[in-house]
Amino acid sequence: MLLIKYKFNTKLQNPHSTNYRNTDYKYIMVSNDLFPVLYLCYMDAIFTLNQIRQVAAALWKEGKNKKVWAFYATMGTGKTTFIHALCEELGVVSAISSPTFAIINEYESPVAGAIYHMDWYRLKSEEEAVNAGVEDSLLSGQLCLVEWPENAPGLLPDDTFEIHMEALDVDTRRLYTGEPGVKS
Fold it and tell me: Does some domain include residue 156?
């Protein structure tokens, strides 16, 4: 069994307002057959490697309307492993690997179309990122999955879907999403 914690938000006073306040946390059991459709919520999951595809599927449900996803985590947390699971969940059949030296790998998904998997670890500046073609990929309108976004934060659009990962122990990871408009 995998439990994913979602933070639900409600609008203040005016139902058309864009101001939200946190009101409730709910835990939802996720199985391979049923995933919740949630609005105005943020995800917080604690999982092991054998649950990674379930978490990837739940994350896709939450963020599929966003084109740029930024993965924040320390070295060795499993960003590439998670992105690999996400790409498999999206039906990518080609080899999925770390773009550490290539900077950008492109995959084709029957669900998401073209996917640009970027690793900005070796980038020393935003100018170097632009010269490597990062900006073109970000502006393509295709799904962009970015590791080490903190190395060129000025290139990220305001509506970037922020994903944070932590290693809790050797086998367990925590993944949570950031609130829209709140930069890390």
Answer: yes
